[in-house]
Design a protein that fits this description.
177 residues; globular; single chain
């Protein structure tokens, strides 16, 4: 659970990461709204074949993820190149996936929760393509951010408002809303 180093405190893009059910979409949207930054839902960038695969209860493999990660990385780089602040969700489960997304000005915000909480949240939501049965494969795949990565970790066991407050405080970001 490292903090960003000093050069990352002016992060232009936050990648809110974690397994399904962690609340990353809620925290990311709330953070973007409070900051007045652009927001993108990484799940919405999946090609239809990935969505169909997950809906069928089949975990994605690296061959499925690389093209999707390239789309997310393009969104990040376009924002950085244009000097536009943004917040994007992306599971970013492996370091190698985060390496595709990593750039100067990017900070990863890992929303972490215990398995029981994640299962409860996934079971309670409706209309999402990711079935609870895939949580175990995501937890197995997850490689926690390491101290040399510009990242913070927040616990998903509080309200989204409290989690968002912590993100803003730890990154030294001031809300506009």
């Amino acid at each position: 659970m490292s903090g960003p180093d000093e050069r990352d405190l002016d992060a232009r893009v936050l990648v809110v990461m974690g397994v399904s059910g962690s609340g990353k979409s809620t925290v990311a949207a709330m953070t973007a709204e409070r900051l007045g930054w652009d927001f993108a839902e990484g799940d919405g960038m999946h090609p239809p074949a990935n969505v169909a695969k997950m809906q069928a209860g089949t975990p994605l493999d690296d061959g499925d993820r690389w093209p999707w990660l390239d789309v997310v990385a393009t969104w990040i780089r376009e924002h950085l190149q244009h000097g536009t602040n943004g917040v994007v969700t992306c599971s970013a489960l492996k370091r190698s996936y985060r390496d595709v997304l990593r750039a100067p000005g990017v900070v990863f915000v890992h929303v972490a929760g215990d398995t029981a909480l994640l299962e409860e949240r996934m079971s309670a939501r409706s209309g999402h393509f990711m079935p609870t049965s895939l949580l175990a494969s995501q937890l197995t795949t997850l490689e926690l951010p390491q101290p040399d990565e510009a990242s913070i970790t927040v616990d998903a066991d509080r309200t989204p408002e409290q989690e968002t407050d912590e993100v803003l405080e730890r990154l030294g970001l001031r809300p506009v809303r």
